[in-house]
Amino acid sequence: MRLTVLRNDPHVPAGQLAAVAARRSIEVVLVELDAGAGLPDLAGADAIVALGGEMGAYDVDAYPFLAAEKRFLADAVALGIPVLGLCLGCQLLADALGGSAYLADSPEVAFGTLDVIAQDPVVDVLGTEPSLLIHRDTWDLPEGGTLVARTDRYNQAFRFGSALGVQPHPEVDTSIARSWLIGPGASTLPRAVGVDPGALLEEFERSAEGVAATADRFFGSWLTEASTVIARPHR
Predict the structure, then answer these.
(1) Burial level of 105, CB count in 10 A (0-12/13-18/19+)?
(2) Closest to 149 in 3D by CA, of 177, 173, 171, 121
(3) What DSSP line would sit under 88-119, residue for residue?
(4) How far apart are CA 116 and CA 81, in angstroms?
(5) Are 139 and 56 in contact (CB under 8 A)?
(6) Does pTM surpass 0.90?
(7) Per the count of CB atoms within 10 A, which of 41, 59, 141, 158 is most buried?
């Protein structure tokens, strides 16, 4: 399988996703949209992942590539190509497929589990094992989509055809978490909602083995699911 990974922000890399793909000997094609790379031909993509980013899905004036990325994701889903969106990628998918993405009432920052409301072979693990939630935006479900998970505050995962959008960050490993929470240029979101970033990092690091195991189950399940898609209209 050839996995096309769309990077929107150099500070939000593929992390655990890249590690899981490597263990499965899956070819990963990294498209650095944030560095000016153009979107590839969909004919060469077996499956697609849209990563996160500090910007919003609506910030197309400041980040013009987001408009093209949303069209690319919508076209991929129309062709039946498996697409996974993570955090910003989830918001881009929701917006591209007829929903909407917008600034939330307040940021959500936590290391915890989701309330899975529709049994799902990929998302189920996030209902039993914690992952990192850190976002200031949220989204509304596209018409025809299925809400899979939420927290008491916001929607967290949805299905729409061949697309899966997930708000948390199962791709984050300890080094990424450290850079986001206490590194130079660390996110301001934790303190904005009264969360101690150092304490959050300590909680995350104590669960490092479990985080890696959760990522392996989550991404492994999605990659297995994607590999079973054999009839593609674009081929």
Answers:
(1) exposed
(2) 121
(3) HHHHHHHHHTT-EEEEEEEEEEEEE--EE-S-
(4) 24
(5) no
(6) yes
(7) 158
CA distance linking residue 151 with residue 181, whole number of Å: 22
- Average model confidence (pLDDT) for the chain? 96
Environment class of 14 (CB within 10 Å of its CB; exposed 0-12, middle 13-18, buried 19+):
buried
Residue in the block written with tokens 């039946």:
80
Cβ neighbours of residue 70 under 8 Å, at least 6 residues apart? 57, 92, 95, 96
pLDDT given for residue 229 in this prediction? 81
Cβ neighbours of residue 17 closer than 8 Å, sequence gap 6 or more: 5, 49, 86, 170, 171, 215, 219
Strands 163-166 and 83-86: parallel
The Cα 71–Cα 193 span in angstroms is 34
Is the pLDDT assigned to residue 5 strictly greater than 90?
Answer: yes
Question: How far are the Cα atoms of 105, 134, 189, 211 from residue 193, in angstroms, in the given order?
Answer: 11, 11, 7, 23
Task: Tell me how far apart the terminal alpha carbons of the chain are, to the nearest angstrom.
Answer: 14
* 37 token code pair: 């790379």
> Which residues lie below 8 Å from residue 166, measured CB to CB, with a gap of 6+?
84, 85, 86, 87, 90, 123, 126, 149, 156, 157
Per-residue model confidence (pLDDT) at position 235 = 44
